[in-house]
Design a protein that fits this description.
19 helices, Creatine Amidinohydrolase, Chain A, domain 1, Creatine Amidinohydrolase
Length: 604
Amino acid sequence: MFQSFDDLSDPSCGAPHAALLRAELSRRGLDGFLVPRADAHQGEYVPPHDCRLQWLTGFTGSAGAAAVLGSEAAIFVDGRYTIQVREQVDMDVFPAQHLINEPLSEWLSDRLKPGQKLGIDAMLHTVREVRRLKEICEEAGAELICLDDNPVDSVWLDRPEPPVGQVSLYPVELAGKAAKEKIEEIQAAISDKKADACVLTQPDSIAWLFNIRGSDVSHTPLPLSFATVPAEGKPSLFIDGRKLSNSVRDVLADLTDLAEPGDFKAGLEAFGEAGSKVMIDPALAGIGIADAITDAGGSLVEAQDPVLLPKAVKNETELKGARVAHIRDAAAYIRFLCWFDEEAPKGELDEISVAEKLEEFRRETGELKDISFDTISGAGPNGAICHYRVSRASNLKIPMGKPFLIDSGAQYEDGTTDITRTLAVGEVSAEMKKHFTLVLKGHIAISTAKFPQGTTGAQLDTLARIDLWKAGLDFDHGTGHGVGAYLGVHEGPQRLAKTGTTPLKAGMILSNEPGYYPAGEYGIRLENLEIVTEARDIPGGDRPVLGFETITLVPMDLRLVDLSLLTSNERDWLNRYHEKVREEIGPLVGAKERIWLEQATKAI
């Protein structure tokens, strides 16, 4: 199994670990310290070696931060984790705060006192974050101390070793473009910004640029590393040499100068000593990186990571791979759905057995490299936890009469998948059907949207919510995230969300996943992946428009649909979608599954 069901959270760790940290802070003359979920790469994908927030509090979510002062502490999470955090963390030690409604900045402003010293790890907080933290400290008469080492590491006695996953070459037949060509394009972008060089901190940017993949974090083929790219000449890749076989090293040596991670700071200082203008992304680069350059005499050019957009806008080879991967994945998923419908009414299935079976069907394709994240297998009240992670302690039997939510994905070498379906188990209530159908209407609204070039994800996000809003309902996560090409299942900068400010471009892949989650009852979410495409000309239109091509090909559960709430256009969309699923995936499954598929995709 790629997924572990061990319970990684221990709320009882909060009090003793907070005490250890406070003692270390006192020894260093610090009055407080911030512990983010992030590692030095500021990524979502963090190896056990860097899970400091989990060690301190017990919280295992993918985003959050803790603040520890002398006599008070708190943990800050967003709307995805408001339920989970209360189950995993000792609220007496780390009271939970909503990251948006009760931000860390306000919490600190209310508590910091003149003369106090607040510490941070300089590699774990971005340039942009630190500016705000300095303002808060100055307003309170306190001082922000940027540390070269982390006090947590000093007291984390059983800290895991850093990962040394092997690096592999990603073939140009799947990448669609040679690494040398990519490097030249990025160097041109650096020159356009009047910079002499650029620092790359995101492992997926580095993987894309050099056409490599790694195995340092679970479920995502990332090689943890840093890189610097000069406007002219060879880049430098700072990566643990133990990750490189001789054959991989030989190929990379033609593209880049190879160095150990311990040499990274010296490389930054060399730019500074040369008086270079170095491009960094202030939203991604740790303040320690910026300070190493400027303290040595260099200057900064602040701009978005130049790899983000080229990586997000997939080329035709990458898009072809994504479509093929989704067809393969759909066949496995439909086999799973047929099995589920047969077994669930017997009353013996639980969240873990379902997740295991779905992974088994994907393994049988012979192409599965990994799952793309821990499967969210949520029965009853667990389905209402947006990013629920099933463990042996939380595992529930799948009850009759309630929706069952399963959100999962696969990593194939030609593409990354992510799909959520909400399934009826037995007869469900009229209210459940209403909620499901309101979510479906939002999903269809995104899928059928046509929008002018320059439109952002924030502008489209409302379409997914409007029918829920009319009913006085909403959901606390974004409607969609970007997806990589055999990279991260969560990829920026594109988003369908209130915070999605990047204009969408043809070739981007995004998820479309509105939901609704009555706490303590059940969860509903429907997710397909969509490619942004150039739409056909609209009669009477006077400007080019974009639209979406749905590449996930798995039926929606018609047993949960309240037909009276659908418009004729929405019915037409659902029928056309199901017809496409039937025609493209039907020939790829067995006779038993084809019979099931005919029923599941019947016209309404």
